Target: Protoheme IX farnesyltransferase
Amino acid sequence: MSDASINTQVQTQEAGFGDYFALLKPRVMSLVVFTAMVGLLAAPVDVHPMVAFASILFIAVGGGASGALNMWFDSDIDAVMKRTQGRPIPAGKVTREEAFAIGITLSVFSCVMLALAANIFAGLLLAFTIFFYVVIYTMWLKRWTPQNIVIGGAAGAFPPMIGWAVATGGVSIESILMFTLTFMWTPPHFWALCLFMKSDYKDAGVPMLHVTNGRRSTRNHILVYTLLLAAVAIGMAFTGVGGPIYLTVALVLNGLFVAGAISIWRRDEETSEADGYKREKSFFALSLMYLFLHYGAILAEATLAPFGWGGW
Model:
C-alpha cells in the first residue's frame, strides 16, 4: 500500500486522546521507563527526587517520540501486517503528517529538557537513541538486512545507560553491561514473535531472519543468542549492580529461558503446527517477563543495599 493511499483513507471518526497516545507505543515506553529508572537508581550517585522524576518523564517522552516517528515511516508496512493494522495511521485515526509533527516536536522537547533537568551528556545520549531507532533501524536496517533486529536492538538497550548518565554524567562498566543485557535479549525475543506470526513480515516485505534464512535457521539463532544472553545475565551478578538476589533470579530465569530455546530448537517442521505455535508463543511470553524481572532484581539490590541486604 502506497503512502498516498494511506493518506487518503477517510478518518471514520475524530481522533481521541487514546489514538494519539497509541502513537507513542505505550507498551514499549513502559520498558523504556522501567529500565531507565533502574539505571538511574542503581547508579552510585544520589539524585534529587525532583530531578529523577523529571528525567524519567523526559526519557519517556523521548521514547514515545521514537514510537511516533516509527509509525510515521512504517505506516505502509503497518497497513499490511495483521498485528499492526489497528495502529492509528493504518486505521485512519491519525494522519502521517500529524504523527511526524508529534514525533519531531516531542523529540526536540525531550532531549532539550533532559539536558536542562539532568546534564548535557544525558540529553545527547537520548538524542542519539532516538536517531538510532528512527534513522538507523526504522529507515535503514529494518528494510535492508535480516540482521535488522540484532543491530537495531541497540536502540532499546540505551535507556538504562541514559538513566545511569542522568545520575553520573557518564557511562561505566555497569551501565554498559545493562545495555548488553537488553541488546542480547532483543533478537531471541523478536525472532520468537516472528515464528508464530507466520507470514506477517513476509507479506510486508520485511527481511526478517525467518523470511530470508528460513525457520530452521531462525531457531538455531534463537538458541545461540539465548546461550550468550544467559552468560551475560548470570555474569552480571558478580558486578557492582549484582548480588545474591540478582544471582538467584538470573539462575532461575535463564534456566527456564535456555530450556525454552532448546524446545524451540528441537522442533522441526514435522511437528504439529499447534504444538510448534505453543512452544514459540510460550517462549515469547517468557521473554516479556525475562527483562522486567532481571531489572527488577537489579533494582532490589540497589534498594536493599543501604540496609545491608543487597550486594555482595
Notes: Confidence is low (pLDDT under 50) at residues 1-12. Residues 101 and 109 are 12 Å apart (CA to CA). The chain has 16 helices and no strands.
